[in-house]
Amino acid sequence: MRTFVNRWIGKMRLQTKMIVSVSLILLISSLITGYLSYLTHLSIAEKEISDQILQKVEQVSARIDLKLDELYRFSNSILFHPNVENLLSASNSGEGVSYNDIMTFDQVLNKMLLDNTDVYSVHIYNNAGQQYKPTHSYQFKELNRQLYQKVKNKLESTDGEMIWMSDNLTTYEGRNQDVIIATRKIKSNRLEDEGMLVIVLNVRSLFTILSELVVEESDTVYLYNGEHELIYKNTDKEMTGGSGNGSQLSTVFKEEVNGTRYLGATVQSEKTGFILSSHSSMAKLHEKSKMIFNVIVVSGIVSIFIAVLLILFTSHRLLRPIKRLLNGMRRVREGQLDYRIEVHSSDELSYIGNSFNSMTEHVSKLIEDVYEKQLMQREAELTALQAQLNPHFLYNTLDMLRSKLYLQDDYENADLIVSLSQMLRYSLEPASTRSTLKDEIKQIQNYLLLQKARYEEELEIKIDIDEEVQSCHILRLLLQPIVENAFVHGFYDQDEKRISIRGFKQEGHLIIEISDNGCGMKQETVARILGKNTSSMADTKKRIGIHNVIRRIELVYGEGSFLEIESEEGKGTKVRMTLPFEGDYHLVEKRDVS
């Protein structure tokens, strides 16, 4: 699939590629911008709506507290009324309640009911469960035994505080109606239980206040008492975010029910313990946020259309220099190297055109140079063939001299000729030819044999190479420049000349030490030799051997391999090489190092 797409794109014209590229960029940018704007708007709106819901729920919760305080005062006016106290006291004592007491009780409570339209009925029970209620409370039948026992059980652990619950009562017309029940114990002056008060409230009294939280049809309101029991709700939806089981008095939450997201707030009254929870649907907010996304996407599509028109309008003028350049490239490919394109502008395309003209001119000149170099190369090949004969001629000459010296019984000079011939053969072999430390030491011995013939008894030679390092790979002619420097610079004014060569293995490395008793050097000279820069051309020529050795070690062996010099004036010089025990000779084959 990817190969097919690449081929399809490769066959498209540049103008088409520009249109497709710009269209994709604008479309992707619009989608990303629209989506980010959608999320940003949604986040900001949710934060603002959450704050508004929380503030509104707190205000409604405060109004409910006022309503509950009003009902609490209403219950106090009943509990502490003398006629109610006399009625319950007489009823509990067994003396019996007179007709006048009942009529006075009925008049007092009826007046209270008329003054408080939120109350449906009032029920007063003595300790024996006998009920008293005013005549205006006959809208509902007597509390059934189950409800009575439920109310009594809830009041057992209380000490006169108000308890709230919701239930369903049956009217005398046989209709079931949802009500809110407020109940509390009735205490005497000596704080003894005299009975209980049950007030049946109209749900509409709270609905008028709670309806302020219902703006949309899908909004929900839940009211819980201090025991987290549901007192009121305006919907049959099961919402969990407002259960009121949290530890915070005011919380804001998000919840999803049946695919619809809701923002909600829960407020718990510190005074009454009532918990008010409200949920508001985010469906319309999401629709408005999606409108922003759609508007941005549509704007992106319109931008694509405008961009395509602009590309079509301007591409002809912009692509004209490129077409001329393509035409020039076709001419050059056909062999017309003298073809030049015309440049009429001073922008980046003009730079390309001028570069093309310079390139074709340079190519023409290079072709002329190639013809000349081919002629010169033929002459160089003939010279090289002739030069290849010179080393063989020199070998043959040395062999002839050695044979002649043997015939004259001059074996000492004949051996010197053999050493010189071996050194010559070793030095003229390609740098990529493998060599070992044993081979390198053998050539050093040939060189020292020639020096021994020169200095005779003045020269003392000591070579100590451990058996385990003799087969270790090493660069060719790595030791010879060091040994040669001892004779050229170290022994020029010495009567007794001593040179020592050691080779051994240490901590996984090949160590080679070359020591002499020559005149030594100053530390400044040592630093200058080991430095990368030279102070003068003369110094460079004098130290080209040692610099060659140092550079070859750096290039071939890399880090961990190095050369050190210990020297002191009048006390000789020691050169110490640290190399890999098994040198990676593949690097030597890849580099033309000699």
TrEMBL record:
Q: List where in the cell it is found.
A: Cell membrane
Q: How does it sit in the membrane?
A: Multi-pass membrane protein
**A Pfam family reported for this protein in Swiss-Prot or TrEMBL:** HAMP
Q: Chief location of this protein?
A: membrane
InterPro entries in the cross-refs: Bact_2-comp_sensor_kinase (IPR050640), HAMP_dom (IPR003660), HATPase_C_sf (IPR036890), HATPase_dom (IPR003594), Sig_transdc_His_kin_internal (IPR010559)
Q: Which SUPFAM superfamilies match?
A: ATPase domain of HSP90 chaperone/DNA topoisomerase II/histidine kinase, HAMP domain-like
What GO MF terms are annotated?
A: phosphorelay sensor kinase activity
Look up the domain of life of the source: Bacteria
TM spans (from-to): 291-314
HAMP domain boundaries: 316-368
| Keywords for this protein | Cell membrane, Kinase, Membrane, Phosphoprotein, Transferase, Transmembrane, Transmembrane helix
Its cellular-component GO annotations read: plasma membrane
- Official protein name in the record: Sensor histidine kinase
